[in-house]
Fold these 3 entries.
Entry 1:
Amino acid sequence: MDDTLDLALTFAVSAAIGLLVGTERERKATAKAGLRTFTLIAMLGTACAFVAQSLDSPWLVPVGFALVGLTIAGAHLVDPATRAEDSGTTTVVAALLVYVLGALNFQGERTLAVALGIGMTALLYFKTELEGVATRLTPTDIRSMLQFGAISAIVLPLLPDRGYGPYGVLNPFHIWLMVVLISGVSLAGYVAWRLTLERKGLLLTGLLGGVISSTATTFAYARHARDATHTPSASLVVIQLANVAKLMRVFLLALVIAPPVLPLLLLTLLPALVMSVPALWWHFRRVGGEKGEDTDRLQNPTQLGTALLFAAFYALVLLAAAWLSEIVGSGGLFVLSFVSGLADVDAITLSSARLADQGNISLAESATAITLAVAANMLFKAAVSVVVGGRTFGRLVAIAFALPLAAIAGGLLALDALA
């Protein structure tokens, strides 16, 4: 009975995957497969996998795969209207993939099959948004991404995965892996930025700008405030949202590198996130219909030179953090965190999380170091706002950052009490 119920659930999940993809395809008038057809195709994949296993005849699965492809392709080819308007390639490939997901689901990979089905549906649904991707990315963007991807995929596996230098903290494989991680996160924001150039509102501008580089975004919009190309409130909204994105980025990096540090970071930095809301809401209500703008300060984060500079800076911070923690104690580490945070939060976040994960420093020390770097970075952005945007605008930024900084101070006191 349990086996029968499990098999029924497997078919139900396959049907749901087909139903999801088929619902999206149903929107396309020329598609020869819609809601019902895709549902049946997914169930056919499961049925073929089940029969193939029961009869020990694995050839049934590829035969079914071929028949699905031929059937959908044939339906498009025999219709003159379809041939004139659309080759139907996307629908054919989608049908074949749904069939494979049905078979994959039977093999026990239910979560993977569902995740791929959802991702596939999203890819099909956002056709308009994805059209012209290559034209929105510059040739320099594409070259730098291909170059960095090739170097990461080829060089990373060849790097030695062992520690060198004092304290054994200089691990070439790990250092370059961190570069890949940082560049990957920034690249996601950069691609989203380039794809939404023509329709970015201030909210999207601030968040995506913060994912790429919150400091560069602050420079750009402080200049907009100075030149009156944006109102002070609009520029402030973008800068604050960039800082919010920076905080979320810190949480993500901590979760990936050293998950035990994350709860302590939530204690110190989550209140700052919450306390950013009042000023953000106050100024956003005064923005009106202003839109975001592109800026040449936001460069492709996968450029090789940028990656190498970050690798060198990260290695230096990692070495200095280990040395100061060992020789001077936590006070020296905290000074380093504050100073390095003025320029870059990522390096000290990764190095502190890495040292905590290795047991070289405590979780509390790691969280404190990262929090001090974030506070220093916020102070630096306030200073940039004064220098670039003028005293009046700088005063607005300082007032907006006052509550988050006060919340950070309170979080540090709470962390110290717990430690």
Note: Residues 200 and 292 are 5 Å apart (CA to CA).
Entry 2:
Amino acid sequence: MQAATAFSNDKLWGTLSASLYIHPKTEQDSDVKKALDRALAELRYGLVGINHWPAVAYGSMTPPWGGHPSATLANIQSGLGFVHNTFMLEGIEKGVVRGPLTVFPKPPWFITNKSAHKVAERIVRFEAEPSWLKVPGIALTALFG
């Protein structure tokens, strides 16, 4: 994990987001837990998702979303500053979003979700003409992906 963290920080371009995937049983090992905590502390990304697509944080609109503050005007990477940040947190270095390794129902953005196009159509209709009556249809369509 230390080598992957160094590679991500030093070789990859961009500082917006990163993902780590780890099985809960693996994470229970104290050495693995320490390595994960160290990786989270050292990764220079504005948002790190653990078992989650980092864009979930962007979509939820509450967590800060932006490049890591190590960027400069000479090396802008993923930009300076954050958007969203509903709670107006100051001095942000990064956000961390954590979730289970497997999820149910299958999120509509999963490539294997067979009803993603139907969910998207319902969401667009909801956005065009919002109504709480449309929410159950969105949820039920998403459940059967």
Note: Strands lie at 17-20, 47-50, 64-65, 83-84, 95-98.
Entry 3:
Amino acid sequence: MKRRLKELAEWVGGTVIGDGDPEISGVAAIEEAHPGEITFISNPKYLPMLSETKASAVIVSPEVAKGDKPLLSVANPYLAFAKILGLYTQEPYVAGGISPKAWISPTARVGKEVTICPFVSVGDRCSIGDRVTLCPGVWVGEDSSIGDESILYANVSIYPATKIGKRVFLHSGVVVGSDGFGFAKDGKKNVKIPQVGVVEIEDDVEIGANTTVDRATLGKTIIHRGVKIDNLVQVGHNVVIGEDSIIVAQVGISGSTKIGSNVTLGGQAGLADHVNVGDNVRVGAKSGVMYNLAPNAAYSGAPAVPHRESLRIMAAVMKLPEMKKTLMEVEARLKKIEEATPSKEQEE
């Protein structure tokens, strides 16, 4: 598929600088692009490569006013790149039907134009929407529902009574609805607390490979609309994640934590149980969130504190060896002064 540069500009709401007629057949990274492809620059450090790339056109920000090849100027080059890449790579959905090697309960309801691959198991009273894709090895427990146009990749496990919305992507190895980690002490013994709640995942959510979402002890674990979760994330029981939040790889969210809308949690951040994180919060990588975080702010460190304060703490920590050396020198000088100063008893 080829499109002229001016057509791509209309698609992303941008402006062409130079010739708008070159035909673009694909998208590539700036170092790997060939004639006929479009690339992008979203980070200023790549600007020197503008004259070196072999691409036929480059997506740039408005700060770049000229170049030796046609430019597509937009406010957000990375977003424009994403939209154009989707235009060239997304193929129309074609239903694959139901494999004879899949098992579907007679009491399950299956929608139109589905793709259900070999070795899929769909339990009693489940509801599978239209144009849903279930890849090999998917297990859908009884009383669960999956909304239209959702894709569950290989070996995804959906425990019973889980509700999944429309256009949800669950990558390989995702587990939704496993028991929350709840135990009560009886002396030295750990007595399991029955986990009898459910999980609800709303529309347009994407969850990365090998992430786990625990069912609630009572009530619901809820992932709201538009949330994007990376690989290897742990979402504990009764957690609520607000709309359009982003959870990066290896984050651990303890039980009953409430996360607001449009929150970003950096990689390997850990959140204690029963913590509330406000809307529009950004938490840095490897931060330890032990207390509630007020909205519309950035935090980092362990324990997490406002980001500017965290930077001051880190700067002080870096100076600790020097401070220790200075303190030891002061102590040595003070000792010499004390030794040279006669005591009251000696004066008498």
Note: The radius of gyration is 28 Å.
